[in-house]
Amino acid sequence: LFARFLAENGLLLWEPGAAVSLDDCEALVQEADPAMNLGAKTKWALAAKLAARMLPQVFKPQSPVFELAFAPEHQRELEKLLAALPDEVFKASDSLGWVYQFWQAKRKDAVNASEVKIGADELPAVTQLFTEPYMVDFLLHNSLGAWWVTRHPNVPCPVPLTYLRTLDDGTPAAGKFEGWPNQLTDFKLLDPCCGSGHFLVAAFLMLVPMRMQAEGLSAQQAVDAVLANNLHGLEIDPRCVEIAVFALALAAWRFPDEHGEPLGVRLEMPEPRIACCGLKVAATPEDWMALVPDTAPNADYVRQELKLLHRTFSQAPLLGSLLDPARSLKNDLATSSFETLHALLETALSTETPATLWGTSQALQEGSWELALTAKGLLDAARLLDQRYHLVITNVPYLARGKQNDVLKAYCEKQYPEAKNDLANVFLERCLELSQDGRRGDGAGVVQIVMPQNWLFLTSYRKQRESLLRRVEWNLLARLGPGAFETISGEVVQAVLLTQTNALPAESFELRGVDASAPKVALEKATVLAEGEIVSVSQKGQLDNPDARVSTSLEIGGMLLNTLAHSHHGLVCGDRPRMTVNFWELIDKGHTWINYCGTVTESTHYGGKETYLRWCEGTGAIKELKGATNLETHAWDKNGIVVSAMRKLPVTLYTGMAFDNNTAVITANDGNHLPAIWSFCSSPEFNEAVRRIDQKINVTNATLVKVPFDLKHWQKVAAERYPNGLPKPYSDDPTQWLFHGHPQPSTHPLQVAIARLAGYRWPAESDPDMELSDEARTWIERSALLNDHSDDDGILCLPSVRGEPPAHDRLLKLLIASWETVEPG
Q1: What pLDDT, in 10s, does the model give residues 31-41?
Q2: Is pLDDT above 70 for 72?
Q3: 260 phi, psi to nearest 5 deg
């Protein structure tokens, strides 16, 4: 696959300046001269050998993969698959990212289906997510692009800045990036979760033209300078590192020179600074220490450093960029011994024959080449992790705490207690650590990440929000909402694009935001990011929001509903199929069952009253089942409002029964306020107010009352709508246990009539203690007048049997009688 990428771009070289095609490779393998076929038996093997000369990081010359031969039928199948791909695939800039995304798809599905806790073996597949190009461009245009327009105010940027957002005075909305150098010579960027290199390639394609124009460099000089000094990447998955290196090298080789021709392959081009921070350490510390010969300078000291490095990175396949060498090595990597250690490992890698390394050292036997390669790779990663950067930009891995294995969970809790609930939030803190700290006198670094949005409002992240609002500047926040990723449907991942500066915010500092959550598809979201309204709010003011929830809305302030009301969590029954029944499945509740209120699909005065709960007066199975809880009974026997805690938050009135955990009940501290609260909750304004602070599909009960509430306004609305108070329980829906039983006003009169004809009676007809409205009582009385039409044994025969009229005649008479109870005669 990689070979075809090179070949289709004219970059697969037989020798410097001499490109070959795959057809040329086919012809060369037919040659008898080993100098021509390089010992390859297929064009693909030859192409890989040629590619290995160009990118030894990706195509390792001694890799056993070159000795692998597929069965002929499998070889033909693979070749057919690859040949069927159109040429355009190999010219697109993001193809390699999609290659990795789909390569991991089967493994990702298998891991998710297994429901195992995620550890080192599962982490890369589960957390890799290809970042959409518009997200990458938005972040880079509002960082590198914003830097350019502030440092070169009268010079057009050499690359289009489609997504750069500015204020009315032309100032970039994300800020001026004053902590960055005025020249890009010293600028350093890191993607600590670089995946297939999407951010790195996009930044490369911006930095090279910028340096060409600002510094007068040629295309080749700018390419070399950017690769050598500006771009750095880390990735936990070795295969992904290979793809990222290849993608960045391909971008460099394809970059046009001053005449519009690709620069082409140059073996002397600087090596991309991308390292694998997830290499598995299979050797013991003693094996690593044995790499250092007795004759090496400071041998004992270097061995100890290598031992410390081994201990630090023994968890590398699990922790990746979360590893912090400074924590364990106490900045020893900054000492001269680091250079000594690095030089020794470079020497080990400079020859292909392990036996020649360091003379006759017994440590370097068969397999030591790979051992040294692992040590160097981890050392390169350690060196990158020990540096600090002007811009740290990435799409962080998403993994909730409940899905993490015990080792990962313990590490996150110990090192990042405020962010421990999701790996994404842990990585946000790690990215800030990797950026330059403006509080130490250095230029303040900037962090830009793609991450889930739920932490901006969930109560479990309150401490982290408060901490970050106090200690770093929140420059720009873009909400994407559902549908932001083309490969993920629905509301699985609702992301935000966040820009923060690692510096203390001033009292007057303003957070700026754009909301692209309303559009349903990525293309429309991209348009809103480029053109939508920019809102500015006080960053310090966010601390005054309920639970310090972060919102770019200007309508969070004012009296909150929780000062007048309380929200109660629903009851978890532990085994719903066993513990609940539809009310029509029982004739008598006895002492076993009680009324149980559930959700409604739209707001109505009385709904969700279809089921009974096996309560057994609070004893029995409800006490024994794992996960069941009966602690939340404080709302029982009170009046209130049932909120279905999903989607648009529809509501219904509550009269004191048990309610399930898909709902919450709001009760008023003062019963006189309940009509006003109901008027608010049953209006669209309630859902809008909640969604401004919590965009999660299922909202927690605590959130429902942490919204602004204008008591006087809603009291006025309630007085107009309900001059006689809120309606008493009543329903024309026969699926509700408070249904009166009469066919005529029913939503399903024919079904009700048939049920009455068979002798069925609704609970409201037989329970004199049920709270009902006067209208409901009237209809119950009228329903009793129809009892004479009911069958005595509950068996309705369609034809005439045992002297009884046929069913249709009996049904017609009941319907006529039902009308006469409404309009006699």
Answers
A1: 878 788 788 87
A2: yes
A3: 85, 5
Distance CA 123, CA 389 (A): 26
pLDDT digits (tens, 9 = 90+) for 389-398: 999 999 999 9
CA distances to 460, 553, 638, 702, 714 from 561, in Å: 21, 18, 18, 11, 12
SS (H, E, C) 431-486: HHHHECCHHHCCCCCEEEEEEECHHHCCHHHHHHHHHHHHHCEEEEEEEEECCCCC
- How far from chain centre, in Å, is Cα 400? 9
**Tokens 């306004």 belong to which residue?**
713
Sheet holding 580-582, edge to edge: 580-582, 611-614, 593-597, 658-659
Query: For residue 809, what is the DSSP state?
Result: H
What CA dihedral angle connects 362, 364, 367 and 370, to 10 degrees? 160
DSSP 182: S
Question: Per residue, what are the HEC states of 284-332?
Answer: CHHHHHCCCCCCCCCHHHHHHHHHHHHHHHCCHHHHHHHCCHHHHHCCH
Q: CA 516 to CA 132: how far, in whole Å?
A: 14
Angle between the 684-693 and 674-681 helix axes, to the nearest 10 degrees?
80
Phi and psi, residue 718, nearest 5°: -65, -40
> What is the distance between the alpha carbons of residues 357 and 770, in angstroms, rounded to a whole number?
90
Q: Could you give the 3-state DSSP secondary structure of residue 8? A: helix
Q: In this predicted structure, what is the pLDDT of residue 356?
A: 30
Asked if pLDDT for residue 263 goes beyond 90, the answer is no
Whether residue 373 has pLDDT greater than 60: no
Q: In which region does residue 16 sit, left (phi positive, over 0), alpha (psi from -120 to 50) or beta (all else)? A: beta
Q: Check: CB of residue 663 under 8 Å from CB of residue 644.
A: yes
Residue 267 has a CB neighbour count (10 Å cut-off) of 8
Q: What is the pLDDT of residues 118-142, one digit of tens each?
A: 888 888 888 877 889 999 999 999 9
Beta strands in 482-616 (DSSP E): 495-501, 510-515, 535-538, 565-569, 580-582, 593-597, 611-614
pLDDT at 436 over 60: yes
Tell me the CB-side half-sphere exposure of residue 619, using CA atoms within 13 A.
Answer: 2
Higher per-residue confidence, 105 vs 541: 541
129 close to 152: Cβ distance less than 8 angstroms: no
Q: What is the pTM of this model?
A: 0.75
* Sole residue written with tokens 């046009």: 256
CA distance 492 to 129: 12
Report the alpha-carbon distance of residue 224 to residue 244 in Å, rounded. Answer: 17
Contacts 24+ apart (CB under 8 A), 206-212: 206/140, 206/144, 206/145, 206/159, 207/144, 207/231, 208/255, 209/158, 209/159, 210/144, 210/148, 210/157, 210/158, 210/159, 210/184, 211/184, 212/158
The mean pLDDT value for 94-99 works out to 77
10 CB burial (10 A radius; 0-12, 13-18, 19+): middle
CA distance 484 to 489: 9
Asked whether the predicted pLDDT for residue 632 surpasses 70, the reply is no
| Torsion angles phi and psi, residue 788, rounded to 5 | -65, -20
164-203 pLDDT, tens digit per residue, is 999 999 999 999 999 999 999 999 999 999 988 999 999 9
The residue with tokens 């699990």 is 318
Q: Exposed, middle or buried, 266 (CB in 10 Å: 0-12/13-18/19+)?
A: middle
Rounded Cα–Cα distance for residues 21 and 14 (Å)? 10
**What are the pLDDT digits (tens) for 754-809?**
999 999 999 999 888 899 999 999 999 999 999 999 998 888 899 999 888 999 99
Burial 664-691 (b: 16+ CB within 10 A, else e): bbbbbeeeebbbbbbbbbbeebbbebbb
Please list the residues that pair with 451 across neighbouring strands: 496
Q: If we measure between CA atoms, which residue out of 751, 744, 748, 716 comes closest to residue 733? A: 748
Mean pLDDT over 652-664 rounds to 92
